[in-house]
Amino acid sequence: MSFKQSICPVMALLCMGVCLNMASAQTDTSDQWQVKLIPYAWFISIDGSVSAQGTNASVDNFFDSSKPTPSFAFEMRKGLHGFYGDFIFTDDSHDGESGGSAASLDVESSIMEVGYTYRAYEGYSAYERPAYTAIYAAGRFIDIKSKIDDSTATDKTSSKNWFDPILGVTHSVGIMKGWTLTGSLELGGLGIGSDFTWGGKILGIYDFTPNFKGWVGYRYLNMDYDHGVGSNRFEFDAAFHGPALGASFEF
Questions:
Q1: Which of 120, 168, 166 shows the shortest CA–CA distance to 17?
Q2: How many degrees, rounded to 5, is the angle at CA 239 between CA 47 and CA 114?
Q3: How much is the pLDDT for 177?
Q4: What is the DSSP code string of 174-211?
Q5: Residue 75: which H helix or E strand, with range?
Q6: Nearest CA to 36 among 214, 216, 241?
């Protein structure tokens, strides 16, 4: 069974569990909007296959980026309902191979995501700290420009943009005084934009004050997209991944 075939039932089971918890969810009666501003840095590496003008380059790097990618997110929530945005802009070079020879791959990308969240469950962990489970639906716009510098005299450059619908689930649990562990899993694309995209992240969050938090974690985003034929073919069948760290200012 392929990964795509196996992850869909997993997501279905996770969403089913969320729905079963809805009956026992504690209702947040707050009538005030809660806002979070979240600047962060993502140290992105690329694994997979990327093409430009029909020329393919393969990159297989566990961690090859020492340059952080400045990124920004926000969250707005009132009661159980909320909205969020996440904005990532990258410009990195990676060593790979093309046609059996060494090649350099440059990737510029803009990833902009906006979505709706619903807290299906709110309660407390075994450590008597807040815990919640949320489901979210989002739209993600991706714009990628790739350039391959191989053994030929001419660099190959292609660019493409597309839109992916996303469905995901997040679970957050307080694990000890001041610390919270948050994880999420998502999938989407489904032929609308990417043939398939999936990702996830896990964060350790520390409360410095009630309104200021710092966090560190790891994020993974895989996209399988292709368009065109011959010298007009563009392909991005690869994953962005790497450690991330940031802060959250809450109002």
A1: 120
A2: 160
A3: 85
A4: EEETTEEEEEEEEEE-TTSSSSEEEEEEEEEEEEEETT
A5: strand 69-78
A6: 214
Token pair for 94: 């990676």
Contact yes or no for 193/164 (Cβ under 8 A): yes
pTM of the model: 0.83
pLDDT (tens digit per residue) in 64-105: 655 788 999 999 999 999 999 999 998 887 777 777 777 778
Assess contact for 109 and 143: CB atoms under 8 A. yes
pLDDT at 147 over 80: yes
Question: Among the listed ranges 65-69, 138-142, 151-155, 225-229, which one has the minimum average pLDDT value?
Answer: 151-155
Q: Which helix (H) or strand (E) holds 103?
A: strand 101-124
Q: Which of 46, 136, 28, 138 is nearest to 87 (CA)?
A: 138
> What does the buried/exposed string (b/e) look like for 196-213 if buried means 16 or more CB atoms within 10 Å of the residue's CB?
bbbbbbebebebeeeeeb
Cβ-contact 52, 154 below 8 angstroms: no
Q: Are 91 and 65 in contact (CB under 8 A)?
A: no
pLDDT of 7 strictly over 50: no
